[in-house]
């Protein structure tokens, strides 16, 4: 009696397999998007220029629209950079080499390097954190510290 299995075990296994296949398909889509973002260095974007403020935005600025500033729509390139001092990831519109200092570290002269749209996540090696013998304590004159 104990060796008998349910008559519906095959149906349950098929349902589990289908759920696993759906989950893996979704995960593979996410991985493809992440890989594309990690290789994309620039994007074609729609740029809105405020002629009153003389600034360019990737969106319609609410302040300029509310104040009735003159806005124009155009195309531009959004390029991604990393600050060489603090490693902050920044995006600039229609700029080939940024001249303004980093907003995080504010170092002069500014130093940037080209970067991808999404930075690859660096995973820590678990073997470096693993301490097989536990925390070591010094033994000095019969007293452990």
Task: Note the gap between the termini.
Answer: 61 Å
Number of helices: 3
If you compute it from the alpha carbons, what radius of gyration comes out, rounded to the nearest whole angstrom? 28 Å
Fraction of residues in helix: 25-40%
Mean pLDDT: 84
Largest sheet: 5 strands, antiparallel
Number of strands: 7
Q: Any idea what the shape is?
A: flat
Parts with pLDDT < 50 across at least 5 consecutive residues: none
Structural class of the helices, strands and pairings? alpha+beta
Q: Strand-residue fraction? A: 25-35%
Instruction: Tell me the series of helices and strands, N- to C-terminal.
Output: HEEHEEEHEE
Q: What's a quick, concise take on this entry?
A:
The protein is 28% helix and 26% strand. It is of the alpha+beta class.
Task: Provide a descriptive summary of the structure in words.
This protein has 145 residues and is α+β, with helices and mostly antiparallel strands. The strands form 2 sheets. Strands 1, 2, 3, 4 and 5 form a 5-stranded antiparallel sheet that branches. The protein has a two-stranded antiparallel sheet with strand order 6-7. It is flat. Helices cover 28% and strands 26% of the residues.
Write the layout of secondary structure elements.
Blueprint: H1 9-39, E1 42-50, E2 55-57, H2 62-67, E3 71-83, E4 89-93, E5 112-114, H3 126-129, E6 139-140, E7 143-144
Antiparallel strand pairs: 1-2, 1-3, 3-4, 3-5, 6-7
Q: Keywords, please?
A:
3 helices, single chain, alpha+beta
